[in-house]
């Protein structure tokens, strides 16, 4: 199937307003400049309906002139660490909120997420001896793809704090490009704290990532660097970016944009991904067979991972591309609880992780990582686990702005399970 077509929320705006005619474009060699222009001219799914495109241009100019959030040396450094994951010598642990929000971007929240990520990594390393590369869904995870253009109340859907507000009021839901400036400022504040926090004793500290969804933001934080191999484009909004399951259209802007980046990239692949598609993705996103360049993030659902993943892994292995296989056990296991909450059951999450490991063990490939939505707080958003969170418990602390997250206890349980599977 074709991603995106089943989803009603994908307003497709060709990026005429985003044609790269600013200073960045002028600094590019003609070939790269043409490739970027071609990428952004393609249809882009899941973009906001900004009411005023002129204002978007002004905001983009502000961000183009602002300091970037990450640096090429760090981005290349992460790629080096990920190369070890691709070779089976390390594990990739990535996670954080489904959707960060401006108001929850507090010191306590950032510390809790980073601290729990390090604690989970410690469990994994302790049990297996493998180094763990740590990547937060942090400092920029502000844009969300949605299944429907309207919510249950008939209001334009919330698309993440970088676009509009969560409050169920028409004014809040108007897309406001100035939110991109606040997102940049909040991300900078988060990174400032993360860089100051004591990291783990061992390398490599904590890197940050988000879905490369909102192209106006990503283009504004794109920077060109001239090096030995010519001019390279770095998305300096994060270290690692991924393309979501709803925006991986082969002719779309997101994939074409990602192809041009020097960053390590992820690609979410859901149940309708075919082996033919996955080979095309791998060839386009990792044309040179670079270890650490591409992470394929499977999110099949616990009931399907054992059937759907093997043919994809086999085809990629046959292609020779050294990708990282990462399991997202969250997005294929979302359910509505009887009382009406969007939730996930810990047993399903754990079972998808088990299935992922089984598939890779059977094929002799490296189960390279986990990609999860979690928070280091005692929320009640996912069912089950040691605390046996029930449907009736969900109302207690259901605080997510988007998808349900594992809480502290559930995250530690999952880390223990992954440690056992990885060690065994
Ligand atoms: C997400 O990671 O929050 C997300 C939307 O995932 P996917 O693209 O896999 O649906
Ligand atoms: Mn999510």
TrEMBL record:
Task: Tell me the pathway.
Answer: Metabolic intermediate biosynthesis; chorismate biosynthesis; chorismate from D-erythrose 4-phosphate and phosphoenolpyruvate: step 1/7
Q: What class of enzyme is it?
A: transferase
Which UniProt key words apply to this protein? Amino-acid biosynthesis, Aromatic amino acid biosynthesis, Cadmium, Cobalt, Manganese, Transferase
Names of required cofactors: Mn(2+); Co(2+); Cd(2+)
The record's EC number reads: 2.5.1.54
Q: Where is this region: Disordered?
A: 1-24
Catalyses:
D-erythrose 4-phosphate + phosphoenolpyruvate + H2O = 7-phospho-2-dehydro-3-deoxy-D-arabino-heptonate + phosphate
Kindly list the positions annotated as binding phosphoenolpyruvate. Answer: 137, 268, 299
Describe how the cofactor binds: Binds 1 divalent cation per subunit. The enzyme is active with manganese, cobalt or cadmium ions.
Q: Its Gene Ontology molecular function terms? A: 3-deoxy-7-phosphoheptulonate synthase activity
Summarize where Mn(2+) binds, as residue positions.
98, 331, 373, 403
* InterPro entries xref list: Aldolase_TIM, DAHP_synth_2
One GO BP annotation is: chorismate biosynthetic process
Family membership noted in the UniProt record? Belongs to the class-II DAHP synthase family.
What is this protein called in UniProt?
Answer: Phospho-2-dehydro-3-deoxyheptonate aldolase
